[in-house]
C-alpha cells in the first residue's frame, strides 16, 4: 500500500523505484484492487442514481475491462516503444503501469457523489454537472501517471511517452471507426 500512496504523491520517484525491481504481481494487484473498489462504488452509484440493468452490468464487468485495458495498453506501448528501439520491457511495464490505475477509484467516487447530487432537489443537478466535469481531472491524472510509468520503464522523452500513452485510445478509436464502416456497408447492402 505504501507504493500506492507514493504513486499518488510522488509519482516520478515511486515509478522509478517500481521500475528498478518490477514485480508483475504487484501491478496486477494494483489493477485488481482499483477495479474491485471501482466496481463496488459504481454499483452503489448505479443503485443510487437508478441507472438500471445496463449500468449494473457495466459496473459488474469493470474488473474485466480494467484487466483487458491493462494488457492491451502494455502490448501497444511495448510495440510502440519498438519504433524507438526500446521494446522488450512489457513485463516491467505491466508491473509499473498497474499503479497508474489508482485515480480511477477517484473517478468512481465522483460518479457516486454525482449520483447522490442528482437526488437532491434544488442545486443538486447543477452540482452533479460540476462533478461530471471534475471526473475529467481523474482521467487526466490517470493519463499523466501512465506517461510517467512509460518514462520510468522505457526511458523515453516526455513527448514520446505521451504518444505511447495515447496508443490504446487510438487503437480503440480505430476499432470503433472500422466497426462503424463495416456496419454501414452491411446496412447499405441490406444485411443489417
Number of domains: 1
Shape verdict:
globular
Runs in which pLDDT lies below 50 for 5 or more consecutive residues are none
- How does the major sheet shape up? none
Percent in helix = over 70%
**What's the total number of strands?**
0
Total helix count?
10
Oligomer: single chain
Q: How far apart lie the N and C ends?
A: 50 Å
The secondary-structure element order is: HHHHHHHHHH
What structural class should be given to the helix and strand makeup?
Answer: mainly alpha
* Rg estimate, integer Å: 19 Å
Query: Overall pLDDT, averaged?
Result: 90
Q: What proportion strand?
A: under 5%
Describe the structure.
The protein has 192 residues and is mainly alpha-helical. It has one domain (2-188). The chain is 82% helix and 0% strand. The protein contains ten helices and no strands. The protein has helices spanning 2-9, 11-20, 24-48, 52-60, 62-82, 90-97, 103-118, 124-154, 158-165, 167-188. Helix 2 packs across helix 8 (124-154) and helix 3 crosses helix 6. It is globular, with a radius of gyration of 19 Å.
Put the structure in a nutshell.
This protein has 192 residues and is an all-alpha fold. It contains ten helices and no strands.
